[in-house]
Specification:
InterPro entries: Homeodomain-like_sf, Transposase_8. By secondary structure, the protein is mostly helical. Helices cover 67% and strands 0% of the residues. It starts with 13 loop residues before the first helix and ends in a 5-residue tail after the last helix.
């Protein structure tokens, strides 16, 4: 039984990565953004991790940064929900 020849891994330029990260941040989920871009979700998660600022070495500051990032993410989700609600309620009712 013969092995299939190894396939070349696709290379993505910095512009594509930046656009993918922007789409992932604006999308409802990273997985959905990866599917829309037709790339592996693990690759997009790795790009997100690499793009994140490192945590400070001081444990107190690191804990504060984690709390602030979580709060920021929660507030961004709440803002998205409110935007969708405005879009829903701004349409007039049809008889």
């Amino acid at each position: 039984m013969e092995k299939a020849p190894p396939t070349k891994r696709p290379r993505y330029d910095a512009a594509f990565r930046a656009e993918a990260l922007r789409l992932a941040s604006e999308s409802r989920s990273t997985l959905a953004a990866a599917r829309a871009l037709n790339i592996d979700a693990k690759r997009l998660y790795a790009w997100q991790k690499a793009a994140q600022q490192p945590l400070p070495t001081d444990p107190a500051e690191a804990a504060e940064v984690r709390v602030l990032r979580a709060a920021n993410k929660r507030l961004a989700q709440e803002l998205d929900i409110l935007k969708k609600a405005i879009a829903i309620f701004s349409h007039p009712l049809t008889p």
